[in-house]
Structures are given as C-alpha cells and as structure tokens.
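User: Could you go from structure to sequence for me? I need the amino acid at each position, not a summary. Structure tokens:
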C-alpha cells in the first residue's frame, strides 16, 4: 500500500511538469509540501521511540 501512495504522489507531481507548456512551479511546490505532511506527522508521532532505539542500541548491559 505504501508503494502505491508513493507512486501516486510521483504521478501527481509529474502532472504539473509538462514539456510542451510552462511548468506550474507554484502548484509543484504546493503538491510537494502536501506530500511531505503525512511523513512528518508519522515522524513526529514516533520520534520518541526512534531516539530511544538509537540511544539504547550502543549500550552494553
């Protein structure tokens, strides 16, 4: 499922870049920003566990 989401985001971003006309840079930036929002939400939600895992990996008991 995640692969399909990434592919659909890529296809949506490619729709804003057309070789025959001018590129809609504003729309491309907006879509790029919106596609990063779910990734950032997941990162901030699980940041504590990520940092905990990194910090405890190097410790010996």
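Assistant: Here is the amino acid at each position, in order:
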């Amino acid at each position: 499922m995640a692969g399909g989401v990434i592919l659909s985001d890529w296809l949506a971003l490619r729709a804003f870049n057309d070789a025959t006309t001018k590129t809609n840079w504003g729309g491309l930036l907006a879509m790029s920003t919106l596609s990063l929002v779910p990734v950032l939400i997941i990162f901030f939600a699980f940041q504590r566990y990520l940092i905990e895992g990194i910090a405890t990996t190097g410790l010996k008991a």
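One structural detail worth keeping in mind: The two ends are 39 Å apart (CA to CA).
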